[in-house]
Amino acid sequence: MKIKTFSILLLLFISAKSFAQPPLGTLKGRIVTAKDEAVSGATVQLQESGMSAITDLDGNFDFTAISPGTYVLTVSSLGFTAIKQNLIITAGKNPFLNLQLSESKQELTEVVINTTGKSYQVQHSESSTRMDIPLLSTPQSVQVVSSEVIRDRQAFTLNEIASSFTGMKANNGNGSFNMRGFTAYSPNDASFLLYNGIRGNLFLWSQQPLLYNIESVELLRGPSGALFSEGAPGGVINFITKKPMAESKYSVDLSLGSWNFRRVSADFTGPLSKNGKLLYRAIIGYDKSESFRDYQDKENIFLAPSLTYLFSDKTNLNLEVNYAHQKAVHQYDNGTFIQPKPDGTFDFNYYPDNLTVQSPTDYGKTDNASATLSFNHTFNEKFKLTVVQRAVRNVLDYTDHIPVGSIRNDSISRGYQDWETDRFSLQTTAYATYNIRTGPLRHQLIVGADYNRYGWTKNDYQYKESTRISIFNPDYSNDIPSASLPAEESDDNKRITNLIGAYVQDQVSLGQQLKLLLSLRYDNYNGKETPLSARDNKQGDELQASGWIPRIGMVYLPQENVSIYGTYLKSFNPQTSNNALSGGPFPTRTATQYELGSKAHLFNQQLSTTLSLYQINYANILTAAPTEENSHRQAAIDGTRSRGIEFSATGTIRNFNIIGGYAYNEHVVLSTSAYGKKGDRFANAPKHIANLWLKYNLRTSVAKGLGLAAGVRYVSDQVGLISNQNFIFPEYTVFDAAINYQRGRYNLQINAYNLTNKHYFTGSRSGTTTGGLGDPFNIRVGVSYQIR
């Protein structure tokens, strides 16, 4: 009730503030050469405002009566390289700009004018539309977690930053996340993790994606098939990677923490050539840790070199290579035991946190690599071309013990898995953007095509029975089954899928207030699974699917700092199983979303808010439908419906940095089948999620550079398994805190997580025996040093 009351009061406060016209701002500056000589006669334009100026004899320019907001400032002069800078204009006077034009150095710099310091706020994202459109004018709920949030939370994986997104949570210690009530998990939703808007997940589903080379993380809520093809119905995560810079910068970070955690990383960037056209960046990372659970040791090595060549201010070529090696005792995090009670309920506090169904004899080793080559050319102010080629390879070798059946007398039977797989993805994307006018209408057109060849060249899997163990006194001496014991389940195959897609999009603007976004995509899938030996006793799957994916969105801006939007989104996902033995082929899974919302930039544009209401219909989910003739038969059912409301706020108010929000979600099954009964709650989908993180930056001379932060996250109870609605994880509230001190080139960061040592479960995988357990109280201490 407190959360609901707080949310209503906050919404009323935001509504009252939204329609207050902010005061106007001014901007002054001076344009000089590399020799600090004034550039007179240069053209200075404040795009999207209609304002322009010519520098005087001293190189000075002056803008007045500017509406607060985000703009792109361009400076050009004959004989010099034009430059662009992203600006946030606040009310009153903004800092004086000193800009330099150069005959040889080509660079695109992002500058945020904000007198309060580094902000959590991000107002632009190209990912949702592949066009440079402010988030305020984007007809979709998009939230961006900036590098400042990642640093202040000392978050090193996607799982650790997931709670900063409104309505999102990590279900366990693997790559499973819940967004708008839907579970996104790599085997079923291969493209829900993007890199710079391109398909090709660097990490496997058993891993927590690392953030060594990540500048920011974006959540595009709802199905996003119009641009990215298949993906999770609840949303798409997009990583923005760190790029080479024209200015030389070198930094080193060291972190230590609970459970023998240690991490070190280095980041070097700058020009490689004297003319400044060849830029580089090299990121190196290493971490090793144990766990509060037995035997869960993990080690990561990460390398991310990248190069950028600037042919001119209009043309560049970028190469980025990533390599991630992980060695672990337990590749999967299978969670901690949960005791069943005679009345059909469960005791979540009976077993100690450290116990696990897995064995010290288990192991996991992954080698993940990717290479991305992107080419960008601007023909003129209206026409731009982008071509991207991305290749990813994931090699996994692991063994694992899993629970079988239910717990009886504090003991559990287990199965043994032995798996080797070699997976790949080759993605080619090309798209062109073109700006044109037809009468009073402005069009931002984008036309693109994708080709994705993905699958695996090796999938060698065997399942055998293992020993039953006492949970409190386990005996692991006979854990590994004999090699001569026949496998109860066996796979040995390869699978190749080809995806060809094409799309067209048009953002139509009528003046500055009304915008219409129209998108249409066509995808064609063709895939085949082929047995590699007699051990693979299943019929090979064949995939042939195609369809149209539309998107319609509209945005109305009653004021420059407020927008109201509506959108219709759709996507479809080919079935992961089309085996004829199971009754296939099956119709593709489809997701359809209807969303209404409002966005606002408040407090002199320093706080960004989004309020959205949505409904997602998800159809053609496969479920078991056995018959006497075919015990393996499956069927596609009506599916589920997810609907809810979300509110998020991110930015800076005076000395406070803030990121927080509240999400209500109701996700239920629509018809009765083996999948579940009509009205059953969906798994791992809590109805209420709230999060808040506040940081106070001290500005006094005595305490300058000191920051104090605190956070809270609340998750209501959630069903762990659709087929057992009595399996309900209790609600939980977790508190965090942090302190940092920055002095010169040094920054000291101390974070404390789960201050009250709350015992809580985050979600389930596929049974009631174990569940994902949240980390107990732990701390991290980090030191960073900016060498240059």
From TrEMBL:
Principal localisation: membrane
UniProt signal peptide: 1-20
This protein's record includes keyword Signal: yes
Pfam families: CarbopepD_reg_2 (PF13715), Plug (PF07715), TonB_dep_Rec_b-barrel (PF00593)
A GO-annotated cellular component: cell outer membrane
Annotated localization: Cell outer membrane
Record-linked InterPro entries: Beta-barrel_TonB, Beta-barrel_TonB_sf, CarboxyPept-like_regulatory, Plug_dom, Plug_dom_sf, TonB-dep_rcpt-like, TonB_sidphr_rcpt
Keyword terms of this UniProt record: Cell outer membrane, Ion transport, Iron, Iron transport, Membrane, Receptor, Signal, TonB box, Transmembrane, Transmembrane beta strand, Transport
Alphabetical list of CDD domains matching this protein: ligand_gated_channel (cd01347)
Membrane disposition: Multi-pass membrane protein
Ranges in coiled-coil conformation: none
Biological process terms in GO annotation: siderophore transport
Residue span(s) of domain TonB-dependent receptor plug: 135-236
An annotated Gene Ontology molecular function: signaling receptor activity
Transmembrane segments: none
Domain TonB-dependent receptor-like beta-barrel: 322-755
Similarity remark: Belongs to the TonB-dependent receptor family.
Protein name: Iron complex outermembrane recepter protein
